[in-house]
């Protein structure tokens, strides 16, 4: 049985999309288990860039079945747009399946996200894709699932109920315009015939595949520090982007998960609000942003940049039970005289070797750094670990020692082929 999970270990945008695309080469099934189109995953193949939001990043491998799992909040309009983009590029989309249990992310969720954010002065800095409101409805048990879309007549009744309630909220609480139910019905009617054939019961599909020794790859979006329970709450997303999320979000028992591969960017970035202990607000941070091309794939926002925070990676390891680490974007650090990694937080004179739960404490933390010498050699075309400069190896070795997890692969460029393989990940 091969079941691999790929998760982000920081605040997202570690390069998960690229790594999933590489590992998907051998996969029979690729499953998204949480999140929605708040994700922005860039995959580069032969110099051509593909940006995916809802579709699994393994979608470019047409032989594998790609599943939008039960734990996903899926905006069907965005899904179809993404499929159309792929089709225009000559790629197939026949291998995409939507779980009948997945939540439908509705037009009113997006509106609600924007209204809540602007009423709070953009407190969280969400992607405004409607993710929080859709998960809130899911847990309030008022959400609409994809199986309810199959019968359009009963769907319309459910939609009426929901739009009526949301319109009361939007007008009375936010003083906003009500949404047009008839237009929404027409918009959904226009996509019904394309969406319905993709809706399937996926939990058996995944478990049967595991029973038959097929290779299943579970693709995480977002990352551990954005986890609803263990991230920097309230500056988090509304799902569990960890290996635990696979069990609830794909319907797979914990004992069936074999490999958990954590993607670690060689430095840190964050989009949106919330504490960021190693953030560099000076020209050093700007240097990383420019060299790393650190601008959001979903919102275009400049990403906040800083040194690698190993307390964050350690925290992610505890949450996920990582079996392997993949380091990405280490090529971006080439040319720096000194490189730093955070190994502790100093808060009110006390040094912590873990991340406190109270974000007020984290916001006051000063990073305790270990400093490394940099390198100047261009490493972006290297394919063997031994070719790496000694100083790069020393940095990697320290990450392994600190986290206690082996580094199995090092990504040295955005393209599918820019990798150094160290251990088999399976
Ligand atoms: P994700 O959300 O975790 O999938 O990451 P994103 O795709 O949002 O952001 C990662 C960015 O870095 C993308 O533009 C990738 O093409 C790029 N990238 C991924 N791995 C590497 C790498 O090893 N080196 C460089 N220079 N770029 C990379
Ligand atoms: P990928 O999969 C980086 C952040 C948002 C915001 C917070 C809540 O590309 O790594 P939400 O819209 O989810 O309610 O926003 O989470 N966020 C991400 N940051 N990468 C992502 O996805 C993100 N998805 C959400 O910026 O701070
Ligand atoms: Mg991203």
Blueprint of the fold:
Elements: E1 2-8, H1 16-23, E2 29-32, E3 41-45, E4 48-52, E5 65-68, E6 73-74, H2 76-88, E7 96-99, E8 103-104, H3 107-119, H4 131-139, H5 152-172, H6 181-195, E9 199-200, H7 202-211, E10 215-219, H8 243-250, E11 259-265, E12 268-270, H9 283-292, E13 304-306, E14 308-309, H10 310-320, E15 324-328, E16 338-347, E17 350-352, H11 359-364, E18 366-373, H12 390-403, E19 407-411, E20 419-421
Parallel strand pairs: 1-10, 1-11, 2-5, 2-10, 5-7, 6-8, 7-9, 11-15, 14-16, 15-19
Antiparallel strand pairs: 3-4, 12-13, 16-17, 16-18, 19-20
This protein binds guanosine-5'-diphosphate, 6-O-phosphoryl inosine monophosphate and magnesium ion.
6-O-phosphoryl inosine monophosphate (IMO) binds near residues 12, 221 and 271.
Task: Considering the chains and any ligands shown, give keywords for the structure.
426 residues, alpha/beta, ten-stranded mixed beta sheet, 12 helices, 21% strand, binds magnesium ion
């Amino acid at each position: 049985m091969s079941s691999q999970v790929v998760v982000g270990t920081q605040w997202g945008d570690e390069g998960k999309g690229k790594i999933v695309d590489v590992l998907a080469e051998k996969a029979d099934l690729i499953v998204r288990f949480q999140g929605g189109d708040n994700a922005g995953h860039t995959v580069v193949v032969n110099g051509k860039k593909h940006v995916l939001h809802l579709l699994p990043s393994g979608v470019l491998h047409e032989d594998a079945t790609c599943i939008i799992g039960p734990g996903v909040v899926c905006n069907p309009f965005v899904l179809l747009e993404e499929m159309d983009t792929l089709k225009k590029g000559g790629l197939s989309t026949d291998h995409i399946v939507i779980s009948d249990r997945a939540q439908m992310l509705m037009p009113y969720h997006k509106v609600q996200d924007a209204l809540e954010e602007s009423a709070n002065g953009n407190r969280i800095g969400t992607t405004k894709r409607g993710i929080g409101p859709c998960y809130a409805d899911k847990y309030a048990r008022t959400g609409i699932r994809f199986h309810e879309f199959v019968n359009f007549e009963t769907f319309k009744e459910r939609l009426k109920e929901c739009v009526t309630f949301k319109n009361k909220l939007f007008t009375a609480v936010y003083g906003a315009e009500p949404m047009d139910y008839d237009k929404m019905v027409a918009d959904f009617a226009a996509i019904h015939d394309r969406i319905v054939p993709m809706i399937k019961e996926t939990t058996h599909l995944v478990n049967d595949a595991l029973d038959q020794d097929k290779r299943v790859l579970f693709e995480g979006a977002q990352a551990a520090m954005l986890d609803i329970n263990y991230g920097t709450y309230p500056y988090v997303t509304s799902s569990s982007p960890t290996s635990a999320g696979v069990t609830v979000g794909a319907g797979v028992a914990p004992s069936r998960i074999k490999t958990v591969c954590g993607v670690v960017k060689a430095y840190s970035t964050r989009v949106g609000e919330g504490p960021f202990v190693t953030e560099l607000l000076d020209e050093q941070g700007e240097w990383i942003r420019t060299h790393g091309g650190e601008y959001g794939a979903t919102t275009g926002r400049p990403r906040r940049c800083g040194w690698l925070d190993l307390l964050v990676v350690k925290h992610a390891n505890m949450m996920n039970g990582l079996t392997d680490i993949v380091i990405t974007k280490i090529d971006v650090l080439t040319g720096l005289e000194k490189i730093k990694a955070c190994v502790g937080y100093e808060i009110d004179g006390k040094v912590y070797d873990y991340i406190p739960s109270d974000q007020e404490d984290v916001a006051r933390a000063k990073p305790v750094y270990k400093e490394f010498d940099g390198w100047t050699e261009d490493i972006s075309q290297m394919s063997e670990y031994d070719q790496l400069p000694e100083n790069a190896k020393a940095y990697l070795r320290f990450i392994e020692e600190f986290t206690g997890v082996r580094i199995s692969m090092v990504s040295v460029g955005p393209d599918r082929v820019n990798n150094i393989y160290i251990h088999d990940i399976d």
